[in-house]
Design a protein that fits this description.
Layout (H helix, E strand, L loop, with lengths): L1 H18 L2 H5 L7 E5 L6 H17 L3 E5 L6 H8 L7 E6 H10 L11 E16 L8 H10 L5 E4 L5 H13 L4 E4 L3 H10 L4 E5 L4 H6 L3 E5 L25 E9 L4 H15 L4 H6 L11 H22 L5
Parallel strand pairs: 1-2, 1-3, 5-6, 5-7
Antiparallel strand pairs: 3-9, 4-7, 4-8, 4-9
Helix pairs in contact: 3-10, 5-12
Protein name: Tripartite tricarboxylate transporter substrate binding protein
Organism: Roseomonas nitratireducens
Family: Belongs to the UPF0065 (bug) family.
């Protein structure tokens, strides 16, 4: 009888953590390193943002922050990986509008649903697209760009980081709003598109600013506009797409921090607090802006989830009109 009682006691003791309320279990968070998946190749904008924020995050959370690049299928491979992880807050993804909004229409058999598969923490920031041409190109403004597209639509080409990328669809959005046609040429990354523009075999590019910030600053790429609603303080000489006369063609490649669905609210709140502290470090806004990323504000996790759902609906008709298919 004594042995039976001892076994019963041990079994009950081992089960106690699972019986504790979620709030009590979350008090020990984090208990090991925080892994943040970037669903793209190394060296991208999300990598740069994570590296900028990591020192403060590690100080606030008391654990190492590990960047894990898991590229593939437009960012959906790494994003799907996180959707299937344990919802304890130790595995997160910093994903952008590609896998979080565009992919819902682009991929018919997507392994996750952004409305149900994630616990959203916060909007970290957003990167506008840059419309760029060679410095010696006679096109010097978006008005010139529109005139050229109307005059020779078959010759007006633009490159992006790939089919279904935000740059591809931003160019499509502008073309639809202005009633012109542009020839899209996809590449495996923004760097390849830029090389073709500078080499003269491609007329222009539409791609995330962060990938071309150095070239714009150095004068080797002329920025006609940024697809934001207002100018960026770090690129004061480049007009926004709204200033250029196209107020309905804004396109921001936003970055959202999320984990698997079912993360306890105290864990989400702790992560949100740590990232807010990191983003509010003195000089951090300017350093993040140097990566081509604007700060974005939200009213909490529910607001972030609603924002993502709206973006899915916004991009859906553009994706369908583009004829883009998964590659």
């Amino acid at each position: 009888m004594t042995r039976m009682l001892r076994r019963s006691f041990l079994a009950t003791t081992m089960a106690l953590p699972a019986l504790l309320p979620a709030g009590a279990r979350a008090q020990a968070f984090p208990s090991r390193p925080i892994r943040i998946v970037s669903p793209f190749s190394a060296g991208g904008t999300s990598d740069g943002v994570v590296r900028l924020l990591s020192p403060t995050l590690e100080r606030v959370l008391g654990q190492p922050v590990v960047l894990d690049n898991r590229p593939g299928a437009g960012g959906t491979v790494g994003t799907a990986h996180i959707a299937g992880e344990r919802p304890d807050g130790h595995s997160l993804v910093l994903a952008n509008a590609g896998p979080m909004a565009i992919a819902q229409t682009l991929f018919p058999n997507l392994a996750y649903d952004v409305r149900r598969s994630f616990s959203y923490v916060m909007l970290v920031g957003g990167a506008p697209m840059v419309v760029g041409v060679r410095p010696d190109n006679p096109i010097r403004s978006m008005a010139d760009y529109l005139a050229a597209a109307r005059a020779r639509p078959e010759a007006m080409s633009y490159g992006s980081a790939g089919i279904g990328s935000v740059g591809h669809l931003a160019g499509m959005l502008w073309a639809r709003e202005t009633g012109v046609q542009l020839l899209h040429v996809p590449f495996r990354g923004g760097g390849e598109a830029e090389q073709q523009v500078l080499g003269g075999s491609l007329g222009s590019l539409w791609n995330t600013l962060g990938a071309h910030a150095g070239s714009v600053r150095g004068g080797t790429l002329r920025a006609l506009a940024l697809t934001s609603g207002e100018r960026m303080s770090t690129f004061p000489e480049v007009p926004s797409i709204v200033e250029a006369g196209f107020p309905t063609a804004t396109a921001i490649n936003w970055f959202v921090l999320a984990g698997p669905a079912g993360m306890p609210e105290p864990v989400v709140a702790r992560l949100r607090e740590a990232f807010t502290v990191a983003l509010n470090e003195p000089g951090m806004t300017e350093r993040v802006a140097g990566q081509g990323v604007l700060r974005m504000q939200d009213q909490g996790p529910a607001d972030v989830q609603a924002f993502v759902a709206r973006e899915v609906e916004r991009w859906a008709p553009i994706v369908r009109a583009s004829g883009a298919t998964p590659t």
